[in-house]
Write a structure and sequence with these properties.
Layout lengths: L2 E4 L10 E4 L1 H5 L8 H12 L3 E4 L5 H11 L3 E5 L4 E5 L3 E5 L4 H14 L2 E8 L15 E5 L4 H10 L4 E2 L2 H5 L8 E5 L5 H12 L3 E7 L2 E6 L4 H12 L6 E4 L6 H6 L2 E5 L4 H6 L2 E3 L6 H10 L1
Parallel strand pairs: 2-3, 2-13, 8-9, 13-14, 14-15
Antiparallel strand pairs: 1-15, 4-5, 5-6, 7-8, 7-10, 10-12, 11-12
Helix pairs in contact: 2-11, 4-7
């Protein structure tokens, strides 16, 4: 059975686009795009259904999946902190965290002994903080290369720049795209508490993966990013279904006309969804979409 729970029906003929989260939703647990999912999404595109990737990942870390399915146009990256047209790479929207936030993140990480990393804006040199055309993508900068950095590199394919993050905080930048802690989930509440006490509602801290805790500007979300992408594409809410499994996906559910979550999603995400379908471990997204659209 492709549908485990249906709370609200929709008319498939009304749907023009699917906003899809990657990790935990579209991808297999190993970060692999399954053949069935790839073929399904390619067929949907051939039937003029738009695929909008909406992810916490960087453009660079999403590109192999986008190119595999052949999707193009405005998409959401860094949990909404950046909206870009791909494959051209044209940046349509960016919302940066302040350098004081970056600096405080370094302090927390060093005090707690956990991994922290930041993404600089596209085409910015991590050495000078100035524009550098050789820096094609957003630079990922870390303090040291440890197990967490190795895991993240394998997870995303992005090679980090190892540099004293205190020096990054001193660069002449307007801000960074996001900061990220990679730590055991048992430590997440303490990180949230410290960031909240320091910055209040100026900053948003969200979990995007079991061990990933991201720091972005308040007001930045996949929902806001999706709204911008939809405006550029000329889409109405009732023409879009959003698919996601984590708390960073919830804002998409209020922007799209219909929301769906895989069985492996966290309970509160399943509760918020209009539809629950099979888990990502068995390519549940493809199974569901084939039954509805193909």
């Amino acid at each position: 059975m492709y549908t485990l729970e249906m709370k609200r029906n929709f008319e498939p003929k009304m749907i023009k686009a699917l906003a899809i989260d990657l990790d935990g939703t579209t991808l297999l647990p190993e970060g692999i795009l399954g053949k069935r999912t790839r073929d399904c999404l390619r067929k949907l595109i051939s039937k003029n259904i738009q695929i909008i990737i909406s992810t916490g990942r960087a453009i660079e870390a999403s590109e192999k999946y986008r190119s595999a399915i052949g999707a193009e146009g405005p998409m959401v990256f860094f949990n909404g902190a950046e909206v870009a047209d791909v494959p051209s790479g044209k940046i349509l929207h960016t919302d940066l965290i302040g350098m004081d936030v970056v600096n405080f993140g370094v302090d927390i990480a060093r005090e707690m002994g956990i991994h922290y990393q930041v993404y600089l804006p596209a085409k910015i040199s991590p050495d000078t903080g100035k524009e550098d055309e050789k820096q094609m993508w957003e630079a990922l900068v870390i303090d040291r290369y440890g197990p967490e950095a190795e895991y993240y590199q394998k997870h995303t394919g992005i090679i980090p720049v190892v540099k004293n993050l205190k020096s990054i905080a001193e660069l002449p930048l307007d801000g960074c795209i996001k900061g990220m802690f990679i730590a055991d989930p048992s430590l997440h509440d303490e990180v949230r508490r410290r960031v909240s006490e320091r910055f209040g509602d100026r900053i948003n801290v969200i979990r995007s993966f079991p061990t990933f805790l991201e720091v972005i500007n308040s007001g930045v979300s996949k929902g806001d990013g999706l709204k911008i992408a939809m405006e550029h594409r000329g889409l109405k809410p009732e023409e879009v279904i959003a698919f996601g499994d984590e708390e960073n996906d919830l804002p998409m559910f209020t922007v799209a006309g219909f929301a769906a979550a895989p069985q492996n999603a966290r309970e509160k995400i399943r509760d918020a969804a209009d539809l629950v379908y099979g888990p990502n471990t068995s390519e549940g997204l493809a199974v569901y979409l084939e039954e509805i659209f193909l």
